[in-house]
Automatic annotation (TrEMBL), chain A:
It comes from Salimicrobium humidisoli. This is Molybdopterin synthase subunit 2. InterPro entries: MoaE_sf, Mopterin_biosynth_MoaE. It comes from the Bacteria. PANTHER family: MOLYBDOPTERIN SYNTHASE RELATED. Pfam families: MoaE. Gene3D superfamilies: Molybdopterin biosynthesis MoaE subunit.
UniProtKB/TrEMBL annotation, chain B:
SUPFAM superfamilies: MoaD/ThiS (SSF54285). It comes from the Bacteria. Keywords: Nucleotide-binding. Gene3D superfamilies: 3.10.20.30. Pfam families: ThiS. This is Molybdopterin synthase sulfur carrier subunit. InterPro entries: Beta-grasp_dom_sf, MOCS2A, Mopterin_synth/thiamin_S_b, ThiS/MoaD-like. Belongs to the MoaD family. Signal peptide: none annotated.
Length: 140, 85
């Protein structure tokens, strides 16, 4: 059985998460994939490394899916987040949301990404040309 | 609270910048009971170079406040500002 809320060091296949939320009642599946970006404000990223508190991160993803169910009762959610070393353009996160109609799938998907960035214990280390640091702690 | 398995230790987990500052991913600390705030004081004594800026804590995988009681057998994780996604 596939895990609906998953933190993994394996490459992410968006199709797996789409398949987990696809069902006859759902006319819409909104899928977000977050990728490793090379250029941020003129600084070049060489690669990224993600770390997570895996059991808590997976529980938090499930909690966020429960919040989605309160706001959008007809939504079904699957989320995968990758950890470990990633290269430019690799997929770091997949969020798939199915709903009967499209508007709520977009809204719920965006809500999930915001909540991930607030509360899910996952950390990104940027390896750039001039050094490496944990995101959120770099000198701006 | 029931003391789990007669343990007299807590497990403390460090991540990201805190792991680098402490030089450890985890350690066991002798614990008779007290608040999370007291755990943080103990950790500061053990690792003076740790920065607590923006750090939250989780007790047994749930976010919690400094007033929370920590029992022997518990797991405390320190959560620096997260940056997933």
């Amino acid at each position: 059985m596939d895990k609906r809320y998953e933190v993994t060091d394996s490459p992410l296949d968006p199709g797996r998460y789409i398949a987990m939320v696809t069902r006859p009642e759902a006319g819409a599946v909104a899928t977000f994939t977050g990728h490793v970006r090379e250029w941020t404000k003129g600084r070049r990223t060489l690669s990224l490394a993600y770390e997570a508190y895996v059991p808590m991160a997976e529980r938090m993803l499930e909690t966020i899916a429960e919040e989605v169910k309160v706001k959008w009762p007809e939504a079904e959610v699957a989320v995968g987040h990758r950890i470990g070393p990633l290269a430019i353009s690799d997929i770091a996160v997949v969020v798939a949301v199915s709903t009967p109609h499209r508007h709520s799938s977009y809204e719920a998907n965006s809500f999930i990404m915001e909540r991930i960035k607030e509360d899910v214990p996952i950390w990104k280390k940027e390896i750039q040309e001039d050094g490496e640091w944990w995101k959120g702690e770099e000198a701006q | 609270m029931v003391e789990r398995g007669g343990s007299t230790m807590i497990q403390v987990l460090y991540f990201a910048s805190m792991k680098e500052a402490s030089g450890l991913a985890s350690e066991r600390i002798k614990w008779q009971g007290g608040t999370l705030g007291e755990v943080m004081e103990k950790v500061t004594d053990l690792h003076p170079s740790i920065s607590w800026d923006g750090v939250r804590a989780a007790l047994n995988e749930e976010f919690c406040s400094g007033a929370q009681e920590v029992e022997p057998g518990d797991t405390v994780a320190f959560i620096p500002p997260v940056s997933g996604g």
